[in-house]
Structure formats: C-alpha cells, structure tokens
Design a protein that fits this description.
Blueprint (H helix, E strand, L loop, with lengths): L1 E9 L2 E7 L4 E6 L5 H11 L16 E8 L4 H9 L7 E8 L5 E5 L2 E3 L1 H11 E4 L10 H12 L2 H48 L5 H13 L1 H16 L5 H15 L6 H28 L4 H21 L4 H67 L6 E12 L2 E10 L7 E2 H4 L2 H15 L7 E5 L7 H14 L5 E4 L3 H4 L4 E10 L2 E8 L2 H13 L5 H11 L2
Helix pairs in contact: 4-11, 4-13, 5-11, 6-10, 7-9, 8-9, 11-13, 13-14, 16-17
Length: 551
C-alpha cells in the first residue's frame, strides 16, 4: 500500500505531500492542472528513466519519495536478502536527480540501480496507463487469475513447490551423472596407477633401509677386507693385539704388590683385554654375515629403481607420498562405485517427485478446464457493464510439458468487436479496453489474490453514463480488498472514492505551481457537481452530486 508520496522541485511542483487512504483514492482536476505530473513523479520512484526537463529549478535537486507498507512474503524477502537490503514491511523509495542530470535511487537509504528499482516496483504498484501493456497481457498473471477464480491457488503453490523439488533433484541427478561419466572416463587410468603402486607392495621405511643396504652392498668387498684385517690385528697374526695386552698384564701382575695404584691399573688392562676379545668376535660375526652375492645386490638395485621410477612419475619426494597416492586412488575408485549407487538413488527420487508433481498438475488441469468457462462468462458480463458490449474474452488452455505451473498453457484471448477472431489480449486490445478488462478480471479475483497498489490513469477514456457508474462500482468494491489510485474525469467514478484529491494550479510570486488537496465531503460534492454541469453548478447538479456521493 502506498502511504505517502512526497515531491520536491518536479516540473511545476515545488513541494507536495499526499497521504493516501487504504481504499479507493480518486484524483481529479482540470486538464493541464498537473495530474499527469503526479504520475510522472510516481514513475520515477518506480524506476522510469530521468529527464532533466522536469527539473523545477535548474539549480535545485529534484527529489521524489514514496512510503509503502506491504506484508513480507517469501519472494519479497528473498528480493531484499538477495540485494543486501534491510528487510522491512515499511519501504521508503527515494529518487534524486541533480541539476546536472545525475540520477540516484535509494531503498530504505540503501543505494540501488534502476533494474533493482523496477523489480521491486512490481511488488508495490500495478500501474495502468492508457497506452501501457498491462499485467493482464502476461501469461503468468492470466494463470494466477484463473487459479484464483477457480479456488485452486493453494494447489498451484503446492505444485510449484513440488516441481521445484523435482527440478532440484533433476539437476542433482544431472550433476551426479556428469561426475559419474568423468569418473568412468578416469577409472581405467586410476585403476592402472593403483595396480602399479599395489604391485610394488610399498612398506613403511623400506626405502630408507634399502638406501642404506645399497651403500653397504656397493662397498661390501672393501668392508669385508678391512674387517678381516682388523680381526687378524686383534686376535690373530704374528703379534695380535690381544696377546700383547695379555703379556703386558703378566708383567704388571709380577710387580702389582709393590705399588698401591698398580692393582687398579692391572684390573683395567685385563678388562681391556676381555673387551678386545669381544670386539674381535663381533667383527668376525659381522664379517661372516656379509652377503657378497650379486643376486642380492641386483634385487636391491631393482627394488630401489622401482621406487625411484614411480616417485619421478608422480613428482613425489619420498615413499610416504607414494603410500598417500595409493590411498587417494583407492578412495577415488571407491567413490566411483558410490557414484553409481548415488545416481541410482537420485533416479528413483526424480521419478517419484515427477510422479507427485504430475498428479497435482493433472488434478489442477481438470479444475482449470472445468471452471474457465465460468470466468469467461462473468468477465464478459462485466465487460458489457463497463461499456464494452461487443467485447468478449476466451480462455485458451492447451497441453504443455510439465513445469512449475502445471501441464497447461494458459492464454486469455480477446475479441473487441464480435469478429469471432480471438487473439492474445496484448496484441488486440487498446489501452482503455485493456484497463477495463483488467479491472473486470481483477475485481473477480481480488479477494483471492495478493495484488499491489492498483493505479489507473484515465481508465474512463471513451465511457460515460451507466458504463462509468459501473466502473465506479467495480472500483469501489475492489477498494474494499486493495488500495486503488485513479485519475478520472467521470463524476460517477469520482463519487465512489474513499479519499478524493483535487489537483489545481496556483500562481505564487509570478510563478504557476501545482497544488493538491484532500477534499472534505462538502468539497467533494461541489467538485463532482462541477464535473457534472460546469464551473457554476446548478442546484440540481449539486443534488445529483450529493446523491452520487451518498448523502
């Protein structure tokens, strides 16, 4: 609902504030008084492009601000969150145009671009001007209107939710199949790499041990030669070190009783003799264990070559990297099998969700086909009342692939002059016809649809008398459910207002300015009387106006 519109320095408006009612708001005034200027200003906050020619004063900034209050539905909240705007039921839209022509727009003081502003305005205002392409020409509105009339809007929302789940599952299935296809293409290669690593039978720390062993085997001859020489020097040969130590011990033993330190030294020498013997035995054991076979050397070299080859192939620095790669490949091969199971499960889910959506869509299609003729009958009756006796509407329902809206392609067709040539509404209806057709349709579904503020700019073009009265009655009834703002020249329509605003020009300091004021009941009667009979209304015109207003 549009609560207030504030305009500063727009065309011949210097300052203007209008506070609207929540029902039917009527705007009247003489031709050229500025009614179209109001629509132009409102268009700015709805995302129209700016024109510097509307600047009231070349050195002052133009500002138009509109305050809306609207219940926050899921889709509107999603819009706010998606565009990083504060979620609020009260929405202030401000449009500024500098004297240099620079335009800026704000929603709740957050800067937005015109595309965002236009998207938001669709939630806030349904603007119907004489030559606009109206909502009634959009297929989604036509479908929503039909569903509202049929009383199956809840089923339509249920279908939309179920189809969304089906569509999401279908996308998940496609992604899983893509992963499955890629995994299948890579599986043979991964299996080959895994088998190659598995064939090596990699063991923890084996590479390090082999590198130590290859050093030993490479120098085994020299090592064995030195070990043999060392053993001979210690325990064998002409003067082995062990025998020399034994002879020295015998000599010290003869004189140990003559000096207090000699027994200790003798004991140490005897221990050294035992240690030398033990060392000699260990050296001999190591010497005997040395493997000089060419087969062992070749095996170690081959094993190391296999390690180094795979490390180079995979760009790794050590055996632990090979072990990690083997585990990774095993995981990928396992995931390939899991993908097969996942694809199978998703296929079942997609099939189930599709069946559920189709069941709802088929039931919805039956209801639409059954009740569409009733909508046509009631709309055509209203068209006759609002001055279009030769106009007829049809609802075309044709099969369509399953989608979020069902299995029906829905189109409202129109014949303005009983030609029996029904064509899409947007192609054949004039601006005034579209406005009245839209009014007729929306009046039938108003209580069942969430409609934004409806704004009509001269919907009464080409009608008068009883037709105008019927338009007024329909708008009055529609105003009990929704907010309407209408510019009109017809007294029969103006008389049905909940709030009546009068636009006029006033000269101040040599400049003509547009003013708007809300009329009291007596002022409304007088204004409507002037609309009926001219600037000096007769007593009869005043009585007629009073009767139209209702007292």
């Amino acid at each position: 609902m549009l609560i207030q519109l504030s305009i500063r320095h727009y065309a011949i408006i210097d300052e203007l504030d209008i506070r609207f009612s929540d029902g039917l708001n009527i705007i009247t005034g003489e031709t050229g008084a500025g009614k179209s200027i109001l629509m132009g200003a409102l268009g700015l906050v709805l995302g129209d492009r700016a024109d510097t020619q509307v600047l009231h004063e070349p050195d002052r900034k133009l500002v138009v601000e509109a305050l809306f209050r609207i219940p926050l539905g899921d889709r509107l909240q999603e819009f706010f969150l998606h565009n990083d705007l504060d979620v609020s039921e009260e929405i202030i839209i401000r449009r500024e145009i500098s004297p240099q022509g620079k335009s800026r727009a704000f929603v709740n003081d957050t800067p937005v671009n015109l595309a965002q502003l236009r998207e938001l305005s669709g939630w806030l205002v349904d603007l119907h001007q004489q030559f606009d392409t109206l909502d009634v020409g959009r297929e989604d509105f036509q479908r929503e209107a039909l569903d509202a009339f049929c009383g199956c809007s809840d089923d339509a929302r249920k279908l939309s939710a179920r189809f969304s789940a089906y569509d999401a599952a279908r996308k998940n299935l496609q992604e899983a199949r893509n992963r499955q296809r890629r995994a299948s293409q890579e599986k043979d290669y991964h299996q080959y790499l895994f088998d190659e690593l598995q064939a090596l039978h990699i063991k923890d720390q084996e590479l390090e041990e082999l590198e130590k062993e290859i050093k030993l085997l490479t120098h085994a001859g020299t090592v064995k030669q030195q070990l043999t020489a060392s053993v001979e020097s210690l325990t064998e040969g002409e003067q082995p070190l062990g025998q020399q130590l034994k002879a020295i011990a015998q000599k010290l033993k003869q004189v140990a009783g003559y000096h207090p330190e000699l027994p200790v030294l003798l004991e140490r020498l005897q221990s050294a003799q035992v240690e030398i013997t033990d060392i000699s035995d260990e050296l001999q054991r190591v010497n005997d264990a040395m493997d000089l076979s060419a087969e062992r050397l070749q095996w170690v070299e081959d094993r190391l070559s296999a390690y180094y080859s795979l490390m180079k192939k995979h760009g790794l620095q050590d055996a632990s990297g090979l072990m990690a790669l083997q585990e990774e490949l095993a995981l990928k091969l396992g995931q390939s099998e899991q993908l097969n199971d996942q694809v199978s499960a998703l296929e079942k889910q997609v099939s189930s969700l599709q069946a559920e959506a189709m069941k709802i869509a088929e039931a919805l299609s039956v209801i639409r086909s059954k009740k569409a003729p009733n909508l046509v009958k009631e709309v055509n009756a209203l068209l006759h009342k609002v001055g279009m006796p030769n106009a007829r509407m049809q609802v075309s329902i044709v099969p369509s692939p399953l989608n979020a809206s069902g299995i029906d392609g829905i189109s409202f067709l129109f014949d303005a002059n009983k030609t029996n040539r029904f064509e899409p509404i947007g192609k054949v209806a004039s601006g005034g016809e579209l406005s009245r057709l839209m009014l007729s349709i929306k009046s039938l579904v108003a209580s069942k649809m969430k409609l934004p503020t409806l704004i009509f700019d001269e919907i009464d073009t080409g009608i008068s008398g009883e037709a105008a009265r019927q338009v007024g009655l329909i708008m009055q009834e529609l105003g009990t459910e929704h907010q309407l703002i209408a510019i009109t020249h017809q007294p029969q329509i103006a008389a049905k207002a909940n709030a009546h605003f009068y636009v006029y020009k006033q000269e101040e300091l040599g400049k003509v300015k547009t003013r708007v004021r809300a009329l009291s009941k007596d002022e409304r009667i007088e204004t409507i009387a002037r609309m009926l009979s001219g600037e000096r209304p007769s007593t009869a015109a005043l009585e007629n106006a009073r009767e139209l207003v209702g007292g």
